[in-house]
Amino acid sequence: MTCNFALMRLNMSCTNSLEFKKMTIQLSTYQELDQWIDAHFDEQVQFLQALVQVPTDTPPGNNAPHAQKTTELLKKIGYVAEQFPVPEAEVKAYGLTSLTNLIVRRPFGAGGKTIALNAHGDVVPPGEGWTHPPYGAEIENGQMFGRATAVSKCDFSTFTFALRAVEALQAKNNLPLKGNVELHFTYDEEFGGEKGPGWLLDKGHTRPDLMIAAGFSYQVVTAHNGCLQMEVTVHGKMAHAAIPDTGVDALQAAVQILSSLYAQNKLYKQISSKVEGINHPYLNVGRIEGGTNTNVVPGTVSFKLDRRMIPEEIPEQVEANIRQVIADAVNGFNQGRSSDALVSVDIKRILMAHAMKPLSGNAPLVQAIQKHGGEIFGEPIPAMGTPLYTDVRLYVEKGIPGVIYGAGPRTVLESHAKRADERLNLEDLRKATQVISRTLLDLLN
User: Fold this and answer.
1) CA dihedral (181, 186, 191, 193) positive or negative
2) Closest residue by Cα to residue 366 from 401, 390, 331, 393
3) What is the pLDDT of residues 351-402, one digit of tens each?
4) Side-by-side strand order, sheet with 282-290
5) What average pLDDT does range 167-183 have in this prediction?
6) Which of 248, 220, 410 minimizes the C-alpha distance to 343?
7) How many Cα neighbours within 13 Å face the side chain of 361?
8) Above 90 in pLDDT, residue 21?
9) Distance of alpha carbon 304 from alpha carbon 287, whole angstroms
10) Are 196 and 96 contacting, i.e. CB atoms less than 8 angstroms apart?
C-alpha cells in the first residue's frame, strides 16, 4: 500500500510537472509572438500608411486600384492574393465603379478549422473640416490620421501581421499547427457587403469555419443591429414660382412625409433591446435632393432613409411599417385635393441587412480574444453588441460563427470614423495585432 501511494505521488508529480512545462512553453510562445510584432511594428505602420494613401471613396466606389495596390504590398511580404473581380455589369447595377475582392489562403496542417479574417477597404468620402490630409496617413503624437485608419484599413494590417507572426513562430519552433487562415479583403461594406463577402460566399470561393471581422480593441462584438435603407421619391408637378397654384409642390409633400417618419423615433425609444451595447431602433434621413431651380415649384423630391433594427425586430415587419407611415402621410397630404393636384410616391428598397445574432459556435473566438485582450490591454474585454451593422452578418447567415474585433478605440466617436480627422492610436494597433496573433495560435493549436 505504501508503494502504491508512493507511485501515485510520483505520477501526480510527473503530471503536474508536464502541465507546468506545457504552460511555461505556451507563455513563452505568446511572448515570442508579441516580440515578433514589436520587432516588425515599423514595417506594419508603413504597410498601413500605403493602404490609407490610396483613396477608396464609396461612392463612387472605384476600388479595384486599391485591391491591386494591396495585392502588390502582400506580394512583397510573400503572400499571394487571389483576385476576384465582380463582373462590371453587376458592379454598375450595384451603384459602384469597380470592385475586386481578395483572398489570401495560408494552410498550416490537416485536421483543423479554417479561420477567416475580414476587413473592408471602402470608405465614405472624406467630407470637410480636416486638419490633416484625409489620405496623408500622417502620424502625430502616436496617432495616424486619415480616412480608413480606424475603419477598417487598419485591420488589413492587423490581420496580415498577426498571421505573419504565427507563421514566423511556427517556422522557428516547428509547431504542429492544424487548420488554415484566410485573409478576406473586400470593398463594399458601405453598400452592405453583398458584392464583397456575400458574393464570395455565394460563389463558393470560400467557406470558413470561423471568422473575425474588423472592429475595435476594447470589446469583442457578438451581435449588431440590422439596417433597412430605402429611397423615397415624391412626384408632384413643376410650375413657375410666380403661379405656384398651377403646380403640385413635391417638397411640401416630402416635408409632411419626413415629419411623420421622424415622429417614429419617439416611438422607437419605447422599444428596448436585451443585448448589451444596443439600445433601441432609430431612423435617419441622410440625403435629400430635388427641384430644378429657385424659381420653380419642385416637381420631384427624393430622399434616402436609414432604419436601424435591433436584433429582436422582424425586418419584414419593420419595412411594412415604414411603408405604411409613408402611405398615411401621402394620404393626409392629398386629402381634400382635386385629382390633378395629388402627389404620388415611389419607394425602393436599397438595402436589407439583417441583424447579427450570436451563434453558439463563436465561444472559442470570444474566449480567446477575452483572455488575450485582458492580458495585453490590462483590463477586461467585454462581449457585447453594437448599434452598427457589418459584413459579419453575411457569414453568420451562412452558419459561420463570427465576432468583431480589431484595432481601434473604445467608441466610434473617439475614432472620428465617418467624420473629419479620423485617427488610430498606434498602440491600439500594436496590441490588437498581438491579441489576434495569440488567438490564431490558440485556434490552430
Assistant:
1) negative
2) 401
3) 999 999 888 899 999 999 999 999 999 999 999 999 888 888 999 999 999 9
4) 282-290, 300-309, 226-235, 344-353
5) 95
6) 248
7) 15
8) no
9) 5
10) no
Q: How far apart are CA 9 and CA 440, in angstroms?
A: 37
Helix (H, G, I), strand (E, B) or coil at 145: strand
CB atoms near residue 378 (< 10 Å):
8
Report residue 4 CA to chain centroid gap. 60
Count CB neighbours of 339 within 10 A: 6
Give the residue from 277, 281, 283 showing the smallest Cα distance to 269: 281
Place of cell 466617436: 413
Distance CA 30, CA 25 (A): 9
C-alpha cell at 230: 430605402
- 3 state DSSP class of 8: helix
Positive/negative CA dihedral, 183, 186, 192, 197: negative
Between CA 262 and CA 318 the distance in angstroms is 15
Question: What does the alpha-carbon distance between residue 53 and residue 156 come to, in Å, rounded to a whole number?
Answer: 14
Sign of the C-alpha dihedral, residues 423, 427, 430, 432? negative
3-state SS assignment for residue 230: strand
Model pLDDT, residue 8: 41
Residue 54's contacts (CB-CB under 8 Å, 6 or more residues apart) are: 65, 66, 69, 135
- Residue 159 pLDDT > 60: yes
Residues with Cβ within 8 Å of residue 347, at least 6 apart in sequence: 230, 231, 232, 233, 323, 326
Contact 436, 212 (CB under 8 A): yes
How far apart CA 402 and CA 214 sit, in angstroms, is 11
Across 60-173, where does the E strand assignment appear? 82-85, 100-109, 114-120, 138-140, 143-145
What would the mean pLDDT of 295-303 be, rounded to a whole number?
Answer: 98
Q: What is the mean pLDDT of residues 314-343?
A: 97
Q: Is the pLDDT of residue 169 over 60?
A: yes
**Residue 3 to residues 8, 10, 249, 384: CA-CA distances in angstroms?**
9, 10, 100, 54
Q: What is the tens place of the pLDDT at every residue in 93-124?
A: 999 999 999 999 999 999 999 999 999 999 99
Asked if 85 and 99 count as a contact pair (C-beta separation under 8 A), the reply is yes
Q: Phi first, then psi: what are they for 103, rounded to 5°?
A: -135, 130
Higher pLDDT, 12 or 65: 65
For residue 309, what are the CA distances in angstroms to 276, 318, 412? 15, 8, 18
